[in-house]
Fold each of these.
Amino acid sequence: MLEDKTILVTGATSGIGLAVSRTLLDAGAAIVAVGRNIERLEHLRASASTKVKSIAFDLTHYSEYSDRFRDMGKIDGLVYSAGVTDNNPLRFFSIERYRQVVEINQTAPIALVSELAKLSAFNPSSSIVLLSSILGPRIGMKGTAAYAGTKAALTAFAKVMALELANKLIRVNCVSPGMVNTELIRNQTQVSDDALKADMQRYPLGKRFAEPSEIASVVRFLMSSESSFITGADIVVDGGYSIQ
């Protein structure tokens, strides 16, 4: 499906980003994996031989973008999956923590797309996918103003960038999951198992969270020619949670 395609994936070594990397590789694509964990990057690269090129890099180092990506070569797509979550309620609001969330979740994706466009890194008919969330664009949750705001911003970015890049036949879309059964969720200690199970009951389609592979399959579709006339869209993958 994606043979002869090269796709840049940020946040490529954990959670949804790792599932996306593996799914794209299984579909025949080569990937350029970007992440901060060198050991995980090497493990991903070793698992796919020549199909993976890795770039160990902190995406908040904006001044280094040109040097890092200038010699990468042409790509056929970008999946921006890097991101952080944080509980930062108004009563205890920390501007430092707010800025950290905004830097990686909101500023970095638009800065990266801008830099890659300036470098003419995208082949014609490329596809860009930004990993957003139902939290922000669709629903609210106490204590998550910074995170929700950044995810809402991504859906707005996608619409504007889709228009700006349409003349080059480059598509830009968002994928917005609800809760996903990632390592982060399985290993967290702030919420009890009973609370997680109760939350799962609020998902009409199966009373469960999504699996990372279910998000990755939607990304694969948006990377393929099967989605050739879709741009500026926000595809919700939440088992019916946000339509209630």
Amino acid sequence: MNEKGGLGRALRRMMGVVPPSGDRPRGGGESVLMNATRLRIFQVLCNRPCSHVRAISREVGVAPPSVLWHLEKLLGRGLVRRQSIGNRAVYYPSDMLEAGDVELLAFIESGHRGRAIKTVLDHPGISQGELVRLSGANGHALGALAGKGLMQMVKDGRHRRYYPATLLRQKQDHYEHRARRFRQSLLSRLADEGLAPETVRYDRHHLEVRVTLGTSEENLLLLCNPFSLEARMLNRE
């Protein structure tokens, strides 16, 4: 196909290969985030780091093969990283996580475990029956969470009650400083991709940023501390 014509260039722009004039990434090259689907995938990975392809597919409403194709573009640009956990690959934004914590976060992300932890944080001392009802997690999942030190189980007569564990609070505190650096990294990477980011607000958990995507603007709410479980659950609601 002759790409000198406007149609070829317009088609490539729709695919996210050619950014609009004046919006090329710093240092030249191609912008991979100047594409609504890839930008959405990147946003999902910020808010739900260590997600696998099918989970991302459900979140963005795009078929798994297409999600994988977009992920390869993000990997090639160095915007995300991939790590194998068992027989499944998970993805997360570059600079967000220490390698040793990827498996733990992937474990939390799987199934209803994250919601179970959030429920215990909201209702310390909750009974197992009520926890199962509110979170959707079964007894096996709760036992696995307790076994990894992600919540505490105490027998109270005929009942089992669950309480928050110190491990998650320690991890959240540990990542406070890294979250500040990750926020700056995010702004730099969005600028490098030609999205002209403008900070709307930020706190210890999130960065809200306005970006320019072609001729439109969009606000992104991005999680900066991956172990802020309260914030992660809020992003899903």
Amino acid sequence: MKASGKLLGLIGSAVFAALILPRMGVAADQASTREAGVWQKHELSFAYLGFTSTYSCDGLADKVKLLLIAAGARQDAKSRPGACASGFGRPDKFARADLTFYTLVPAAINSAPGGDQVAGIWRPVLLAARSPRDLQTGDCELVEQFRNTVLPMFATRNVADHTTCVPHQESGSVIGLRFESFAAAPSGPHASPQAGGSQP
């Protein structure tokens, strides 16, 4: 039963990706126009509370950084293990991670004075099982909490959330979160979407 449940979860993620990715390709073409943006700094103590998966504090920090970069945070994002009762590499029911990261906000809606402007674009993001590669179905509740706690710190639009997490089991859980994120525009023909821009 457990194996068949995992298979159903993988099939659900594959179907979601098959339906969404073609639309995201169109969105990428429509979102390629550059506009000025300003970096905003964020600091957060992220406390994970979930029923299905348990993380060590260092494991949680690594996974949250993966989500930060995927969502469009600047490449220098820092995610450090928080104060945990368990030692390094040991699962902790109250795992924490201390986050310091920058997100890009369109200059037109940025209310803070000053700051160097950076060329930004709206780029499509898909969070699903294996997208990014190290994201797994068991991370479903983490994605839900990231969506609720951290994603509002990003400039996003066209959010479509089809994530369904079944507590205490992976069977039937599906990660399906897509949106457009305002991120730094590539600085050259082979640059990543996060490249370029001055550092505040």
Amino acid sequence: MRLLLGSGDPSTPEGLRAAYAAPRSPWLRANMVSSVDGAAQGDDGRSGTVNTGVDRDVFGMLRELADVILVGAGTVRAERYRPAETPIVIVSGTGEVPVTARGGEPGAIRLATVPHAPFLGEARQLLGEENVYAVGESPHSPAVDLGALIGLLHDEGHAQILCEGGPSLLGDLLRVGLVDELCQTTTPRLLAGEGRRIVGGAALDVPLALHTLLEEDDTLLARWLVNP
């Protein structure tokens, strides 16, 4: 792996971890992948068809650096998420636990939803009440209060938070100013079509500063600081 911008030697596992070390704690980083023309998913609706071997390597390493993973329920279903070594918090307006995410060790899968979610009771039965966060902006809002959720995770000692999307959740986090860093992999492909971009929802304009740029086998891996 070549270092194009930044410092350190990313050619070793230890050097790569150092290249991605968070500058402070707490820290919330998002990790996304797209083709050169901006497609965040292939024609099967999955980001797994866009990424490359080195992207998968960095994906795994970022999980190791994180205390907890944050991901939207739609992405969990599309990518067929399963319990992992790092705890996963699924953000869902309905409170339904995706089928592939069920059956792990207690605390491996957690869920953030709203107090009036239709599947809230079922989620508590499946995951345990202590692993379900009911945080709504108002009694009638379908949106999870992301600021309150991040505060709860910090209170539990989860200082390093990794968001793996999808685009809608990343857009919502950016709009309320909760993202510190975007890790973006650009793979050497052109996909065209109607695939989603890495950020979804209403228009926004967030300034970034390039912190680190790595390259391997024509795949570019960038660390962007948000609102530097």
